[in-house]
């Protein structure tokens, strides 16, 4: 009986241990705050797409370049914030797992101590059971011996003392048999109580197994939801990174276009300076020609010289005109290149706007996924909390039943100790009586031997006169 009670206690301790492990291993799913991104209306991409550009080309290129740099820096900062917050969440989960492992390591020696104590109690109960079986065997042997003594004493009815002793022994045997029957009745009652406790324990074990299955299903659902959310977040991160990679070469292209525009503007400035110098020279030459025409009449002597000078100046002018035409052609080519670059810039701006709209759509989808995941997580939390409360109520009821069973076991142990003391007292009395009976039997055997010897002497004395008579008869 004690062994079964100890087994019930061990199983209840195992149920408690499983409950503690379930509370320790149950994941607290929380949607990380790192996934709350900035809405598209507040991002730099949306502002760039909705803002009108200035009119001048150089200012337009500078504005675009600055905005792309700012937006790229903002996107890089947002990505770094996401990764840092994800690493913070991961570190939190790692710290929680370490704390749980430390709790398990701290509970393992306590569990080992409880197991050792239960094994010791079980061994003690087995030893007590063996002692009880030995005492029962001794009682049976004493009953057999007393029955034999009773049968032997019936033959010798000629002594009153032996009859009185046998009657006393019979009374003691009856009392012992009645007490043995009472013990058997109490043992049967205790066995029935143990069977009831077993049935209750089996029912509680079935309920605990059902609760374990339900908790396993809830944990499996939580794991699936968390895995799906993480997979979707990773997919959105990959898409966001791909879009950023697509947008990465745009600042370089803008830089190249800006450099080409600066070079073209420098060449244009040089051409304008050259044309301005040539125009100044032409004005000077015209003034000189006016002065020369006004002074023709005065300077006839120097006409030949002036004609030569005019020819030289004309040749220089023709060369300068040719140079001016070449410069004008170069300016036209540069203007064509500038127009082409402006077309490229417009094309890149259109593409940049498309990518910005796509990024805004992706951010909206990310917000929707976040809201759905938070709702699912809230539902799973509510379910897990309700199940945890229900399990706690059930466990409290089981603990109350265990306390009652412990109290009953203590009462049974007290009754067992009392019965054991009574049995020991009766066994000692029976042993003393048995020793007295053996002593009396020995005295009886000695008396019988003395009677036999006296009877043999009497027979020998009777045979002697018979022999004398026989001898006289033969003599006659």
TrEMBL record:
The processes (GO biological process) annotated in the record are: regulation of cilium assembly
Origin, by domain of life? Answer: Eukaryota
Coiled-coil spans are 111-228, 254-454
Q: Keywords, A to Z? A: Coiled coil, Cytoplasm, Cytoskeleton
Instruction: Using the UniProt record, give the first listed, main subcellular location.
Output: cytoplasm
Q: State its location(s).
A: Cytoplasm, Cytoskeleton, Microtubule organizing center, Centrosome
Cross-referenced InterPro entries? Odf2-rel
A GO CC annotation given for this chain: centrosome
Q: Tell me the PANTHER family matching this sequence.
A: FI13205P, OUTER DENSE FIBER OF SPERM TAILS 2
Q: Tell me the protein family, please.
A: Belongs to the ODF2 family.
**Which protein, by its recorded name, is this?**
Uncharacterized protein
| Native source species | Leptosia nina
